[in-house]
Design a protein that fits this description.
Length: about 220
């Protein structure tokens, strides 16, 4: 099953890379080519969504104890999908360089300044996005470690409880064995006392018989 998931992952990576490349080209295309490219990207976005659905179905079939890692990867892919859709939406309404120059005028310095300002803002947004993604990844990894620790603690607790139950059973068995041994020892002592008394009686009887025999002669 994991091999199927990894196959979907590879297809998703290739497809999203193609979509990203095409989205970056959309604002610079002439109207006719732009329309064709937009339709092509929309089709590929639908294919990417279908791949995500297949991957999600595969994750649901994974045993719960092994599902955490794949669920984290699915969340990352869904975030990437949402980012692609947002970028595609912005690219569809973005003006080409020619149209922007017509609207802003022929002042080259003004256009260059505005372009530099836009690029600077874009870089800032990308850095912020990377920091947010890194923070989210750390939070996900921390959550996963916490879940593993809780599972380990739960297993250790079960082991301790089983050990306590075995100790209680052993203690109960020792108590029974002690009572049995005490009873056996008591009977042995009683039997020995009886044997001693019988021995004394036998000796007295023999001595009495000898005494009567001597007196008779």
């Amino acid at each position: 099953m994991s091999s199927d998931f990894e196959g979907y992952e590879q297809d998703f990576a290739v497809l999203t890379a193609e979509i990203t490349s095409k989205i970056s080209r959309v604002p610079r295309l002439p109207p006719d080519e732009k329309k064709h490219m937009v339709a092509n990207v929309e089709k590929q976005l639908e294919e990417a969504k279908e791949l995500l659905e297949q991957m999600d179905l595969e994750v649901r079939e994974i045993p719960p104890q092994s599902r955490g890692m794949y669920s984290n990867r699915m969340r990352s892919y869904k975030q990437e999908m949402g980012k692609l859709e947002a970028d595609f939406k912005r690219s569809r309404i973005a003006y080409s360089d020619e149209v922007r120059n017509e609207l802003l005028g022929d002042d080259g310095n003004s256009s260059e300044n505005q372009r530099a300002h836009l690029l600077d803002n874009t870089e800032r947004l990308e850095r912020s996005s990377r920091r947010l993604e890194a923070g989210y990844q750390i939070a996900v990894e921390t959550e996963q470690i916490g879940q593993e620790m809780l599972e380990n603690l739960s297993h250790d607790r079960e082991k301790i409880q089983r050990a306590r139950e075995r100790l209680r059973e052993t203690d109960a068995n020792l108590g029974k064995s002690s009572r049995i041994l005490t009873g056996m020892l008591r009977r042995i002592i009683q039997n020995r006392i009886l044997l001693v008394i019988l021995g004394i009686i036998v000796v007295i009887t023999i001595l009495t018989a000898i005494a009567f025999f001597i007196r008779g002669h």
